Prior knowledge:
Transmembrane segments: 12-33
Largest sheet: 5 strands, mixed
Distance between the termini: 106 Å
Strand content: 15-25%
Family: Belongs to the ExbD/TolR family.
Number of helices: 4
Protein name: Biopolymer transport protein ExbD/TolR
Subcellular location: Cell membrane
Main location: membrane
Oligomer: single chain
Amino acid sequence: MKRWPEEEAGISLNSLLDVLFILLLFLMISLNLKPENYLDLRLPEVNTRDEEAGNDPALLVELSSNQEVFLKYGESSERFPLADLTAHRKQLLDLCTEKRRVLLRVDRAVIYEDFVQVLETLKACDGADLAVQKSD
């Protein structure tokens, strides 16, 4: 009896690799043709009239670019450096709690950290309406 030489049984991967390569090329080309997803946001311009922003607020707190805070309440006004804000905190909180309407007017050139410092102080006012307005 004659025996045939034993061959290992296996699957030829050449065809499979060709198909995978073609699929990979197709995927790469189709991803490059796909437009990028992004949100095309066109935010509206904010046009507030002076009456809406509080032209005559009960308490005006103005922060200037040279780190000065200007308080105007009624007929009285006061100016002090931003470094003294903690010393004037009690007075400021009493005024804004009493007046209930506060307008924080901030110069465009003010450092953001200074703005946040004043805003954090004014946030402690209980029940006061706080409006923020930028000035030139």
